[in-house]
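Box S2. Input/output pair 1.
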Amino acid sequence: MAEEMLPIQPVILAGGAGVRLWPASRRDRPKQLLELVGDGSLLQQTALRLRGSADMPIAHDPIVVTNEDYRLAVAEQLHEVGFESPCLIVEPAGRNTAPALTLACYVPLERDADPVLLVMAADHLIRDTDAFHRAVVEGARQAAAGRTVLFGVVPQRPETGYGYIHVGSPLGDTPTAKALLGFAEKPDIATAHGYVLDGAHLWNSGMFMMRRSVWLRAIERHRPAISSVCRSAMAKTAQGGRTLRPDAQLFISCPAESIDCAVLERMVIPREDRADLGAAVIPLDCGWSDVGGWRALAEASPPDEAGNVTRGDVILEDTKGTLVYSDSRLVATLGVEDLVVVDTSDALLVAGREHTDRLRTLVARVEGKDPSLTDRHRRQYRPWGRFDLIDSGERFQVKHIVVAPGASLSLQVHHHRAEHWVVVRGVAEVTCGDRIFQLREDESAYVPLGTPHRLANPGTEPLEIIEVQSGDYLGEDDIVRLEDRYGRL
């Protein structure tokens, strides 16, 4: 079966912020990069879902569309699960899914000039991978015939937070693929009940399949401005290996529009005289969730006998129907019911489980008080490892830094701060001015303000140091990189 099918090129869209999962998800590390349910991050689970089916002819590592803030984390996480050469498109600005997909269509492929594209969000959860594979195989058949394929999830309950796809009769000789009759926005609860009962409405999963040429013709016809800008921006791409950066000045002028609004809503009535502009819907019953908020995560996770869902170091006593998430320390609950408790190193959320849909309003208030609490975590990841902000005050800051084996920070200069380094585990190779020397456990070094310096780990185990910064300004933007192996100059 697989040899008769066109090759499939996966496209993963990985640019969303996921603020409805605050405080775990933040702008510097959104939900697709977090381990929320199961093994690995949602991005890693999405990528691994591409493997494991002999009938699904995946021809290439995925094309991943992301942004500069997530680029290194995306590349590192994919490498951790065995994807050695994914192509990363780094958007200079977010412009929604239609431009993101159009950029991916202009990536030069070594072979298979017109593959079937499998377009997926990086932050969705699918529990039944076999059912997903079967749906993709059927979708590939439909896409090879020239149709654009939507995956509609069979609704398990009335849901007011999802858009819906209205489907009609089966297309052709297969009972699986159905005609696209229309789209419905997020309904009220009574309408959602009706959708579940009528069997003709499916949740809009945001996953699609089509041949590359089909999408390019469709976007050029329906949204020529998007087509033109993306084509020109990719023609002037700055390339570093498998990382592509569309021209920022051109791309910034691209209209922002979703795949649905730009193209699919104009394909509601399939046209037999133009097969390349027809649409098909594949019903998908695979335990899908967009993990759009804490309640959705609780519903998508296996509960204990009292209906509780936990992740991290958690102890529950006389607790029912509660989600508890801890990323660092012990969280204990006693005598509570139907709560969401999310603990991070610098913020704690306690909410009624049925009220988490209003989290955006609360997050806006938090951002107004302290933007750093919605922008970034105290633990921040870098291509060389990570650091935790332990404490800070006027003119000082203390960090716990972990450098991966063989990794090194950039050669850099600070104009406003000096630094003290104390090694607590491992061996450090220190560059300080014109000196290069090693530090072992319990040894320290002082880096004066304005001195070029670098920290590296020459060993095979993680290097841990405590860094004490002092100065009149301690922001992360007080870094002038002189050399950097990760291309961050």
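Box S3. Input/output pair 2.
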Amino acid sequence: MLFNSINYLVFFPIVILVYFAIPDKAKRFWLLATSYYFYMCWNARYVLLILFSTVVTYFCALLIEHVRTRRKCVLALCLTSNLLILFFFKYYVFATGTIERIMAALGITVNTPSFDVLLPVGISFYTFQALGYTIDVYRGTIKAEQNFFKYALFVSFFPQLVAGPIERSASLLPQLDVPHHFDTERFRKGVLLMLWGFFMKIVIADRIAIVVDTVYGDIGSYPGLYQVIASVLFAFQIYCDFNGYSTIAIGSAKILGIDIMENFDAPYMGLSVAGFWRRWHISLTTWFKDYLYIPLGGNRCGKMRKYINKMIVFTLSGLWHGASWSFVFWGMLNGFYQVVGEAMMPLRKRIRSIFHINTDSILYKFLAAVTTFVLIDFTWIFFRAGNIGTALRVLRMMFSSYNPEIFKTDEIQFLGMASGSFRMMVICIMILVVADILKYMGISVSDWIMKQHMYIRASIVAFSILFILTFGVWGPAFDISNFIYFQF
């Protein structure tokens, strides 16, 4: 079930009405039942994978807490069993295909077994959430959860089940202990968040997708600035698509009385690649930091080891995003940026000192943010292209010609949309940028709206709904657009 579907607009109000109407003791079971139903709307059979992960991590956590010996063996069993399931459904074809190509290059024919399986939606997200819980129990950060149904709800809570944020057990589990009651303030904030999420997804991301899919779908017909436009727009598409999902999830959970973590913090306002990654997909970035980077030694083992650890983390982060060498290269490139940036920090500081550069000036921050965006956008080409060969072809086409005349004519229509729709897309992106600048400055637009008179709030909500309905990508020509991160 997609957030941007009629099904969800029917499903969620029913969930709310029943949740706040039934006795407190039944609330947790209702959320658990609706979470499983939410997932089963996609593919009922694959709900067994969530159940498997839930059962294994639940009992392994209990064993880890109650046995004095073999705790590492239990943890290893838990990690291995879950990661093997993830490997089979997500990476088996990639791994066997790579092996076959390597062996073929050596003149050896290898025929590996093939399986016709569909990648389960959200498997990377709920697997990491469950494994994070088990590791927390092993470390003694939290106590093992005794109530199986409560833990099952932690793993499957529907707002963030299929595309995050990847919640931490210490944050979400205690909230599931408390039966929540209807709160007008939380409802208002939740609705505002959901509307902003729908705006990012339906109005911006889905409109941008028309241009990006047109250009990337026929690379040879769109040289020069066409490729530049599509690649820049993809940076905003993936941001609005993924952040839109996260924001709708946070808003939905807030209405139900549950707070889940913020996943994005104006990432394109980052002044460095490292700053970008502190603001982008925060739940995954911090997961890798806490459960991989620090256990590898973090920055405690010297510079060279720290750089190696960063490269390992970002390489695996790339692989987490998809079973393709282009994703691996995307991750490695982001890691390489950070290693080079950190290694050159003394030189950069010296240059700033020699030329008396004020790092607090607006001009410096603007240039740093633009530079960071260009570097990040370059990596998005490999992310979007699907394979390294296609990405290199995009880069060749990007520099094959210089055609600024496309802005002086109506040629922009050939990117899949009318010029008026293209201008609306640009205006909406500008609204997004202004909102992120305000957020970067510590100004919350939603908090400002909440402080206004009831009639002003109602007018803003009504206008937002009308705007989304008017300028969202709808109609028989377009399918309900899936969220990009559903494939991860």
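Caption for Box S3: The chain has a mean pLDDT of 90. The CA atoms of residues 32 and 153 lie 5 Å apart.
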